[in-house]
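Q: Structure for this?
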Amino acid sequence: DVKVTQSSRYLVKRTGEKVFLECVQDMDHENMFWYRQDPGLGLRLIYFSYDVKMKEKGDIPEGYSVSREKKERFSLILESASTNQTSMYLCASSYPGQGFGNQPQHFGDGTRLSIL
Amino acid sequence: GQQLNQSPQSMFIQEGEDVSMNCTSSSIFNTWLWYKQDPGEGPVLLIALYKAGELTSNGRLTAQFGTTRKDSFLNISASIPSDVGIYFCAGHLHFPSGGSNYKLTFGKGTLLTVNP
């Protein structure tokens, strides 16, 4: 089974802090993703990466950055945390699956982040 | 980003009843995926569909990829209390060039409550 592990289940930080969320997958997947999930808004893509050191902006990248130095690890960085970044953050990974037959994404258990 | 139209938003049923939910879009999809999310957890993949008309089962769950490639449904038969959770549809959009990309488009979820 695919295993996507997020470093923290719950995290509390203060406004203005630099926050790191870590995600590791054990299936040698090329693609990795960061989402945030808020009530009524569903899952929104923040950033994704299709290879080591490669990244692309998702739908809501403002206030976030990412790092992918190794294939198995994808980090989400809140440069200066703000209260509106309080949310559930989900990491996912998948094989490339170009064209028809794209491969499904597999999710971690999420990090519930509170910014005070 | 684009959203899928998922309905119903919520359902409250008695144990043993069958459940049906669906997703529709004005765009063509190459894959349809159904996920379940338990409270405080990440989404778990239930069923993946890759061909128009495909009907796939996973235990008491059955899902179909609509023949127009613009819709999908999920049925749960003989519901049990542990079926409680949020069910998401998701899919990879078809691009006019014939391909698609890594990103998933999500529905906003159906909250299922099962009364024992």
